[in-house]
Amino acid sequence: MKFKLVLALIAGLFTWTGMAQAVDCAAVRARFQCDAATHYPLHLSFDDGPALQTTEVLQVLKQEKIPATFFVIANKVDCPALEKQCKAEHGSKIQACLQPKQECEQRRQILLQAKRAGHVIGSHSYEHLRYSEVEQGLMREHFRLARQVLDPYLNTTPPLFRLSYGDGWFNRQQHPQVLAALKANGFQHIAWQLSAFDWDENNQQGDKILTNVLEQVCKRRQGGVVLFHDGVHDQLHTGRLFTTTHLKDWIPSLRCVVDFKPLSFFETGYTQRR
To answer: Range of 241's domain?
Structure first.
């Protein structure tokens, strides 16, 4: 009995030691030339969802107790519009529209899951367009639709919005009509200070995405809101697979350098509702 107890204690010690050594924080900080005495505040934000694989992101966030913000494309959960479009394309072939309808309802449930988990839900407009380049009537209609379709999910007052490509924000002095249209629809715009550049296929290998984030944080000696993607803007149901699969692997190294914070740590002017 004592022998078994000793074995169990030794096994537990090795298990604990293995976990403790899984990430060498000193090596992480040295590699990116980070200040060893500082943890920088960071907020995770995800664009272009919801997608099937958003559930994987939600699971990681729950396990790691990390708050996040999801900026979602409204047409991905506009099930009546998608069904109407499908029927127009397939005519009397009713079976062809069953799976798209089920997938849309699934995305709605995933978005509700994110909301119920306490994450901030914001709009990424109705479609993923450069709104400084489109006709203003279409832009205003998309902003209106984005608020209408996402109303059951948006959980801040005022509702939050992130422009696709940052277009209309980074070039706001040249195109003030974009932010003016957002304001007319009651939205507050939220930008980002750091980017994982996870949309770039050249970065979807090894630890390039993790490197992108840590290099920015440590070189600037400051944190901020970082942009990731859980979805792919031109795919309704499939997510940004490299990100959704590897997020869990990046968190331990990130924790060596950052403290995860809620969006409200960086942004003011809104209140979150449950």
So the answer is: 24-77+106-272
